[in-house]
Structure formats: C-alpha cells, structure tokens
Design a protein that fits this description.
Elements: E1 3-8, H1 14-31, E2 35-39, H2 59-68, E3 73-78, H3 85-102, E4 106-109, H4 121-138, E5 144-149, H5 155-172, E6 177-182, H6 198-208, E7 214-216, H7 232-243, E8 249-251, H8 260-270
Parallel strand pairs: 1-2, 1-3, 3-4, 5-6, 7-8
Helix pairs in contact: 1-8, 4-5, 6-7
Length: about 270
Amino acid sequence: MPETLLIDNGSSRPESTLALRALARSLGDLSGRLVHPVSLLHADRIAAHTVGGQPADTLEPWLRRALAAGRRDFLLVPLWFGPSRALTEFIPTLALELKRDYGPLRLRCARELCPLPGGELRLVDILFDHLRATAAAQGCPLRRLILVDHGSPRPEVTAVRNWLAAKLRDRLGPDMQLYEAAMERRAGVDYDFNGERLEGVLQHLAAADPTSPVILPLLFLSPGHHAGPGGDLAAICGRVQSAVPGFRVYPTQVVGTHPALIEILAERMARRP
C-alpha cells in the first residue's frame, strides 16, 4: 500500500494549510486510509503556532524523510484543476533527483481534478451550488457572473477554466452573462489566452451598469493569498466598489469547501495510475 499524499501548490497563509489538513482528514475518512497533507512549496514559511503547533509539510523534505526511513512507494493526489507545471515538470524532475539520491522508488500521481477533454461535470455542480447559495444569501439575481481563477502561463490550464465556463453557461441558460477572468497573467500577446485580469473586467461591468451586482464563482481550492480573507481578490473588489458607488461584488465560497470535492478526490485516488 503506497503512502498517500494530498498535495496542493502551497501558500504562506495559515488558513490554506488548515484547509488542506481538513481535506486530507475527510479524504482519509472516506477512503479508510491515512492521507498526508503536503504542499508543494511555500507552506514551510508558516509559523507553526498559527497551524496548531505542527509545522506545515512541503513535498521534497517530506519525501526525503520518508525515503531515509525506508519507504519507497508514494501516491500523490493533486489539488490542481488542470495540468500545471507542478504536475508536468516539477514533480517528475523531483522524482528523478530522488531516485538518483535514494535508489529505486515509486512516485505516482493521480489525475488532476478536471482532465480534458472529458472534464469533470461534478466541478460544474459545485460551482453552480456555490452560485445559488451566494445569490440566495445576498438576495441578488444570477445575472452577471465572472468565473475567476489564478491564471496560468500554460494554455492547457486556462482551457480548464474555459471548459467549466462553457458548461456553466449551458446550465445557467442564455439570459446569464458569464465572463471569465484571471487574478494573474503575464504581459504580452503570447498570454492573451488567459483573458483579462479580474480588476479590468469588474471595472468594465461597473461602468456599463453600476446597479446590477456581480457574483464571482471562485475557481480556487483553498483560501490562500488570492481568495483568502483580506486577500488580493477582496482588495480588488473593494477598490472597484469604492470607485463606483452602489456597485456590489459577491464572491462565492472556494471549491474546497464543497463536500463533493472529496468524492472526486477519492475517485482519483482509487483510479491511480
């Protein structure tokens, strides 16, 4: 039986590690196996006292400790929507380095959350549930929406957001205005596939109709630097709302708060390569 790691990109924010640990516990309860919460990077900068006194783990040090203790079989369950460079480059390169240093080992990675071309319709269900919950809580219509993600220099990752947006449009019907945006994108025409940054899309919608609210379905898994309390996303929404009196923006919950995510992860774990 391999050691099972639930792995995310990592954040220096404590709430991100706490969310990862909660997901790992839930996945372990559902699967009946021990699931280790481990981040790729960044989480080792978090002060231990802010995450219950137990330092956050990052991937390379965790694997080196396990290999030094004689463990040789590992399964990574990734918390990425698409084929990011973490999955296609960083982890394969790390595996080669570890084999060089420790000898034979098995380091396998389950599929990402929304592998194209087939996609994952349960993610559409999650986004739709969060949209309805936010609209009900705020008492506003589902009319103007922006599906926002982190942004990626890889077209294959942005294609996942495009696929989910298309499926959401089908679900919501022709009267809905669903836009897409990224929190980050690199400059230049080579990265136009990312679309516009969130702030620009919000400014455009606020200028066009400041009286109709906008709901943001968040294509984020945990409350990190962008989607967490007091993060970049909240700051952007605050700036645009302050500049246009009466304009309101309502972000949804992140995907990682929905119980259906655990079912998707458990299936990925069961269908490991």
